[in-house]
Amino acid sequence: MRIDIVTGLPRLLDSPLQESILHRAQEKGLAELVVHDLRDYTHDKHRTIDDAPYGGGAGMVLKPEPFFECVETLRLARQYDEVILLAADGEPFTQQLATELSLEDRLLLLCGHYKGVDQRVRDHLATRAVSIGDYVLTGGELAAAVIVDAVVRLIPGVLNDGSSALTDSYQDGLLGSPQYTRPADYRGMAVPEVLLSGNHDDIARWREAERERRTAERLARTEIEKKHTHD
Ligand code: ADE
């Protein structure tokens, strides 16, 4: 899979894409992650990528021309399955969407700016706008890193343990079960007996029960929070 990312702040993405599993995925040739500097698609001395909003108001808006010129240039070389604008008011990013995107060959991510991007980018370049949560970041770069991370780890062969991603929290709608490693007793905090038993059926049953218990607990908490915010 190839993912291109367009941003006015390319350095923000350097380290998130170059460490650990994402680094290895690229080394293994399973993912190609390419960052493009929006400023390379400007024509003025100051390499301007934003401007004041029409109609007035605080903050600057990212200009349309660099985005259009960048995306048009990239499209000369390849077509994209999805062009995703990162925006706080986009559709929510979920494990389901991560799974869908992991099945694509070519993604193009456009990083917005907290005040916004000229609407014409959203209407005519992006196939969808995606948000990683109901809070406002200074820009789409960290959101792009989150999406790349969640998507690339689902590509077959990226995780060493082939079945590992399938037992993740959310992958089948349930949260994961608690995990423990040595020592069996740390400062009096003991690992549940069943995990030391060597009985794989018992362990599988315990894990399933824990997944259901944790999911039910989380749902109950979310319901209580919802009730409080509506009161
Ligand atoms: N840009 C600013 N906030 C964002 C968010 N929550 N998700 C995606 N992009 C953003």
| Number of distinct helices | 8
Mean pLDDT score, rounded? Answer: 95
The proportion of strand residues reads 15-25%
Which H/E pattern describes the elements? EHHEEEHEHEHEHEEHH
Query: What is the count of β-strands?
Result: 9
Give me the side-by-side strand order of the main sheet. Answer: 2-1-6-5-7
The backbone outline, from C-alpha atoms, is globular
Gyration radius (Cα, Å) is 22 Å
Bound molecules: adenine
Could you give a short account of the major beta sheet? 5 strands, parallel
**What is the distance, rounded to the nearest whole angstrom, between the alpha carbons of the first and last residues?**
46 Å
Q: Which class of secondary structure composition applies to the elements?
A: alpha/beta
Which residues sit in consecutive blocks of at least 5 with pLDDT less than 50? none
Summarize the structure.
The chain has eight helices and nine strands.
Task: Describe this entry's structure for a reader.
By secondary structure, the protein is of the alpha/beta class. The protein is 38% helix and 18% strand. The chain contains 8 helices and 9 strands. The strands form 3 sheets. The chain has a 5-stranded parallel β-sheet with strand order 2-1-6-5-7. The longest helix is centred in the C-terminal third of the chain and has 31 residues, at 200-230. The protein is globular, with a radius of gyration of 22 Å. The N and C termini lie far apart (46 Å). The mean pLDDT is 95. It binds adenine. Adenine is lined by residues 86-88, 112, 114, 131-133, 135-137, 139-140, 143.
